[in-house]
Amino acid sequence: MKIDRLLAITVLLLNRGRLSAKELAERFEVSSKTIYRDMDTLCRAGIPIAAHQGISGGFEIMEHYMIDKYWLSAEEMSTLVTAVKGLSSALDDQQMDMLLEKVKALLHRVEQGHGDEYRREQDPVIMDFQPWGQRQGLKPAVSLLKKAILQKRRVSMAYIDAKGAAEQRNIEPASLILKGNIWYVHAFCLEREDHRVFRLSRMQDIQILSETYKPRPLPSLERLEWESSWSNAREEETVLLFHSNARQRVADMFSPEQISVNPDGSLRVHVLYRLDDWFYGMVLSFGDQVMVERPAEAAEEVKRRAQLIMRRYDNQDR
């Protein structure tokens, strides 16, 4: 749309200074004549566009054109840039890229007004929601679901449940949730006739349907808190004894208040856990670097699962 292109051109000129008609035409995939007409439109709208001739010529917004007062300080705008950059790392979204350009343009203008006071060679905080060592390629699915939400269209997919079965589901997606580095979809499930939170990595064969829907009242989800209904396992005081070689990973998973270091360098962790498949998978992932001290039934269950793994490898017909 022309209005979107005009806004984008204005933001680019504010942020990057002088740009040639050719550069703008290539970026927006239009002709140079269209760019010249856009510049005339911006001038008539009151934006002071200056045109320069020659090899280094191009268009730029006159230096005096800036907002005199800002609701946000340079420090606050820098925080916004950091947050938007982080979201951009997790999204394949042109609108997010455009938002980043806008915020950076405002930050640039505020920094100019403060001299060198707020200018930094390196960002003090860097946020990147694209995790190392985990499944990649979720960006297209996020973009697809965002499109469905904006167009209010139903979505079909196969969802992998707790038993490993892929169930066909039809949903009315309401919002995307990024918790840590994991994407979820808050949606109304037509099969369950209730709102559900689906983990995106467990959604397969996602298809946008032609059917539209009228948004339903949503339960508040400003924060995605754990619900006891998600796991039938009981929560118990658990004591884990780790080998000193596991200290780095233990520090990643537990707070200092939960860890005590023994004279031999081993680490004892006191923590509340639900004794479910996630817990046993976590314990087994440490191999021989951990032992469950309490509760006793949890230790026996770890032994049972370890024995099943050994049998699996001993079975030549697997």
UniProtKB/TrEMBL annotation:
InterPro entries: CBASS_pafABC_assoc_protein, DeoR_HTH, HTH_11, PafC-like, WCX_dom, WH-like_DNA-bd_sf, WH_DNA-bd_sf, WYL_dom
GO molecular function ontology, one term from the record: DNA binding
Pfam families referenced in this protein's UniProt entry, alphabetically: HTH_11 (PF08279), WCX (PF25583), WYL (PF13280)
Annotated ranges, domain HTH deoR-type: 2-57
Keywords: DNA-binding, Transcription, Transcription regulation
Annotated protein name in UniProt: DNA-binding transcriptional regulator
Source organism of this protein record: Paenibacillus glucanolyticus
